[in-house]
Specification:
The protein has about 350 residues and is of the alpha+beta class. Helices cover about 35% and strands about 20% of the residues. The chain has 2 domains: about 1-80; about 100-320, Endonuclease/exonuclease/phosphatase (Deoxyribonuclease I, Chain A). The strands form 2 sheets. A 6-stranded mixed β-sheet has the order 3-4-2-1-11-10, with no helix packed on it. The N and C termini lie far apart (about 50 Å). The model has no long low-confidence stretch (mean pLDDT about 95).
């Protein structure tokens, strides 16, 4: 009986977690349940044979199995697009991978208290990206990675002591580079125009919104994703959004971001590329993203080795092409999406607190 009660409690929890993860409520208690879909799926797969083995009552057993089947179906469908079962959203580039229309980007949340400067510098030199975006950078990180400035002479350094500092370094020329506080006064984003060697331009948005936590609203993060998406929507120049978005690739808010911005996710049809947390293999999910205009095509995408942070660095290489005719764009936003965005932005305007996690790395 004890085993049956434990299995029942776990099944009820999984049903609750699965259902609430789709609620359109801007609060961390709701948003965090969208993160561990892989873990919920794996746990449910373990519960199924245990239920058959340990629950003696046939009615009880079948009731639990029905609930577990619902969890399995919903979680599997939610993440299936990041497996080869789904058609790739970002097209593969068939041209010269080193052509003058290509750009490579390395995105790395360094973890502010991490002091493995040399490993980070060595990795950047080895990966040799055209652009490197560093997040959670303080003055210590800013001073250390100046060693890269000879090879990556363009960019902007905006270190902060609150775990939201950001540094962008580029081999390509940049124009109109700005540090903007889109939603919260202590959470910056970097927006710049990148000029490729062939003269083409695109807008790069480096972002790192606050994370959702169970005891605080998620209005700051949600509103920043919405505002960046709306900036991209109005942008006539091709755009890339890159950084630690503190949101999983399969969440409702990320899909909302895509419907507004119409940007593509190169993970779709290719894999999860889980980047957080490096310390726990069984609790990882994809938080570090790059979304791109359909005029870009993918050359390479890979998760780089652990070099001391709680995030893995990500490397992307793309080519800017003349057309997006063959691309499969995300669905367009609808009236419900616009209403939700308005509500999210209203909640953000009412915020009266500092960003989450400003004291975590002290």
């Amino acid at each position: 009986m004890t085993a049956a009660l434990i299995l029942t409690a776990l099944t009820i929890f999984l049903l609750f977690a699965t259902g609430i993860s789709f609620a359109r409520i801007a609060h961390g208690f709701v948003r965090v349940f969208a993160f561990p879909r892989l873990q919920f799926l794996a746990l449910t797969l373990v519960l199924v044979p245990l239920t058959v083995w340990l629950v003696e009552s046939a009615m009880w057993m079948w009731s639990l199995l029905a609930g577990q089947a619902i969890v399995l179906a919903v979680q599997a469908v939610s993440i299936a697009q990041f497996t080869p079962l789904r058609k790739r959203q970002s097209q593969s580039y068939e041209g010269d991978p080193n052509g003058k229309n290509t750009v490579s980007v390395l995105s790395y949340n360094v973890k502010m208290s991490n002091r493995d400067y040399d490993r980070a510098i060595a990795l950047v030199r080895e990966a040799d990206p055209d652009i490197a975006i560093f997040m959670e950078t303080d003055e210590g990180w800013a001073d250390a990675i100046k060693a890269l400035s000879d090879d990556w002479p363009h960019g902007v350094s905006h270190p902060l002591e609150n775990s939201y500092g950001m540094i962008l370094m580029s081999r390509h020329q940049l124009r109109d580079t700005k540090v903007q506080y889109l939603v919260m006064e202590d959470v910056p984003s970097i927006i710049t125009t990148v000029v490729l060697p062939d003269g083409q331009r695109f807008h790069l948005y480096g972002v790192h919104p606050e994370p959702p936590v169970p005891h605080v609203d998620s209005a700051g993060r949600d509103a920043e994703l919405v505002q960046v998406a709306e900036l991209v929507k109005e942008d006539r120049v091709p755009a890339i959004v890159c950084g630690d978005l503190n949101d999983v690739a399969w969440s409702h808010t990320t899909r909302l971001f895509q419907r507004i911005s119409r940007l593509l996710d190169p993970r779709v049809g290719r894999g999860f590329y889980n980047t957080f947390d490096t310390r726990f293999w069984f609790m990882r999910w994809p938080l570090d993203h790059l979304f791109h205009d359909a005029r870009f095509q993918l050359i390479a995408m890979k998760r780089l080795p652990d070099i001391g942070s709680d995030h893995y660095p990500m490397y992307f290489k793309l080519a800017l092409t003349a057309s997006a005719e063959e691309a499969e764009l995300p669905e367009r936003e609808d009236a419900a999406d616009r209403e939700e965005c308005a509500e999210i932005e209203k909640d953000a305007r009412a915020l009266d607190r500092h960003a989450i996690g400003t004291d975590w790395e002290k």
